[in-house]
Amino acid sequence: MIDPQPLLHLGFAYWGSRTLLAAVELGVFTELGDGGLDGEQLRERLDLHPRAARDFLDSLVAMGLLQRIGERYENTPVTAHYLDRRSADYLGDVFEDSGERLFARWAGLTDALLAGGVPVIPGAGISRLADPSLPALLHAYPWHLVASVADLGAQDDGLLAELNDRLPDVELLLFEGDPFTDELPPAQVLVLRHVLHAWNLPEKRMLLDRAYRALPAGGELLITDSLIDDDRRDNAFGLLMSLNMLVETAGGFDYTRADATEWLTAAGFRDIRVEPLTEVESLIIATK
Known about the structure:
44% of the residues lie in helices and 15% in strands. It has helices at 5-11, 13-26, 28-31, 39-46, 50-62, 77-82, 92-106, 109-115, 134-140, 158-166, 201-214, 236-248, 257-267, and strands spanning 37-38, 66-69, 72-75, 148-152, 171-175, 189-193, 220-225, 270-276, 282-287. It has a 6-stranded mixed beta sheet, with helices on both faces. It has a 3-stranded antiparallel beta sheet with strand order 1-3-2. The protein is globular and about 65 Å long.
């Protein structure tokens, strides 16, 4: 008999996902930031109803998000580092946005697939995703050899803040205008972090054309996104990210390395190369 368990695990994977999101929203990991608490202490601090509090907390233990020593619950090293609101590397705001807004949009995926999208709420924008690839990006490119860097369309200044700490002599520009109508800054390096996938094909081509014109000869464009593998069968995260663009944007979609190479070549770029940053994230470098 063929085992149906993989299908069942995937079909009900949202149970675990929603439990994690609820834990972040309730502040479970922050309450445990100063040390372990027994179940009743933690239940009272979180103002949980007694009915399912124990099942909820033990579910977090079973999923590896908490550890229980005797009757005391404690954070794991990962949840202590990333999900305690007092941590400098807190990622919970991303999960809170997912629980409050994005989870509901994904519930409309079937309708979006039939209609080619969902109504985009004006001013809502794309959810700010965590950028675990930032440390790898800082090591993957010779930033010390450039005079100026502009981050185009970034939803945070993390890259420029890190570069400012490391290379105070490099001119750093955070572009917050409209990349389709406003003049792009004349920097030696232009960076598109998680930006290109948010647009439809004509907009993607226009953005790359404008970046090419703004760069000096020898300047470089850096693009980070979750590239879909060229065979479109291995990088599930990249493909799912493209579906995320379906429910979040008017025309955005993710793309393959071959797609990016074609568009960049058409815009005039040369010496196009791709380097992995994380298991699912890649860096594209293109030279003018």
